[in-house]
C-alpha cells in the first residue's frame, strides 16, 4: 500500500486521524477548565461545548472550497495548511493567555476556531483518500479505511490514558501547549505531500471525460428506465459542450493567470451535482432518518460528567481509563458488526442499536438513583460498563450511518460513483455534516433540558428525570424506520 500512495501521504493520513482520536487528551482538560476554574453550571458548559462543535455541522462548505477553488493551482494541500494553522494557534493562545482562557466568550470563540481547523482537515484528508483510491484502484479502499480507523482508535486510547494522567500532574494551560505540538507536526507534514502527482494526471482527465456525467444516471432513482439511455446521451452531449466551453475558458485565462471565472463555474457545477444526488430518495430518506435520530436524543453527557466528578468524586485518571475501555469497545463493536451483523437488514441493526442505547440510559438512571448500592456494585463498575457498552453500541449506528444506502461497497468507492470526479470531499462532508448537525442540535436540547430541570453543580435531584427524557428520545426514532428501505442490509464490502 505504501508503494501505491507514497509514504508521505500515508503518514499524513495516519497523523490526522490519530490527532482526531487524541483530541480527548485536551478536551478533557477543557471540561475541567469550565467546571473547576470557570465555575460554569452543567447546562452552560453543555451549551458552550455544543456551540464550539458547530463547525463540524457545516463541513460541505470546506469540501466545496477545497474541491472547487484551488489556491496557487493546488486543491488540497493549501487547505490542509490553513486548517493546521487554525488547529494550532487556538491551543497556543489558550495555553499562553490566562485572560483569554478564563473568559467564557473568548474560550468558546477559540474552541470554535480550533474545531473549524479540525473539521476542515477531516474533510480535506477524506477527499484526498477518495482521490487516492480512485487512482490506485478499489482494492486499496479497505486498506486505507482500516488504516484510518486504526489510527483514530490508537489516538483515542493514548489520548484518554494520557489525558487523565496529565490532569493529575500538569496545569491545564500546559496541557494546551503540549497538545499544540500535534497540529504543528501536521503542518510540517503537509509540506511533503503533493495534491495530484503528475504521473496520474492523464488518468484523472481520462476518467473525468468518461464518467463525470454517467455516475448520476447510473445511480439514479430508477424512474422511467426506458428513457434512461436517452437522458444519458442528452446529458453527455450537454456535459461535453460544457467541458469544451470550460476548457476554452481556462485556455483563454491561463495566459493572464486569472482563475476568477473558473471557480464560479466549478462552484455551480458542484452545487448542482450535490442537489441532484441529494434529491434521490435512496439518499434523502435514510439521511432524514439519521438526522432525526440524533435530534430527538437530548445529549446530557456534560451533565453526567459533572455528576461523576462532583457527586461521585471520580478522579480524572479513572474517567480516562473508562474512555480507553470505550475505545476498545469501539474496536470490538466494529469486529462484531463486520462478523455478524453486516448481512442483517439495516432496520434490524438500527433497532438493536437504539434499544441498546435505551438500556444504557436505564443503567445511568440506576446509577443516579443509587439502585446498585444494595447489590454491592460500586460506582466505578457502573460507569465503566456503561461507557464501554454505550461506545460499542454507538459503533453499530456509526457503521450503518457510514453506509446507509445499501451499496455493496465502502463509502470511499461509493462517493466516486454518486458524484462526478472532483467533489468527493463535498459529498462525503454533506453526508456526515447532516449527522453532526443533528448531534449538535441534540446537544443544545440537552443543555436546555438541564437548565429547565435546574440541574447545577450542587443540585442533581432531577438528573434521573432528565435521563428518563433521554431514554424516551432514544426510542422515538424506531417509529420512523419506514424511511429506511426494508430490503437494505448493513453490508459494507
TrEMBL record:
The chain crosses the membrane at residues 47-65, 77-94, 173-193, 288-307, 319-337, 349-369, 437-456, 463-484. Keywords: Membrane, Transmembrane, Transmembrane helix, Transport. The keyword Repeat does not apply. Residues 211-259 are annotated as: Disordered. Residues 230-245 have a biased composition (Basic residues). It is a multi-pass membrane protein. InterPro entries: BT1 (IPR039309), FBT (IPR004324), MFS_trans_sf (IPR036259). GO terms for cellular component: membrane. Gene3D superfamilies: MFS general substrate transporter like domains (1.20.1250.20). It is found in: Membrane. Its main location: membrane. Belongs to the major facilitator superfamily. Folate-biopterin transporter (TC 2.A.71) family. This is Folate-biopterin transporter 4. It comes from Urochloa decumbens.
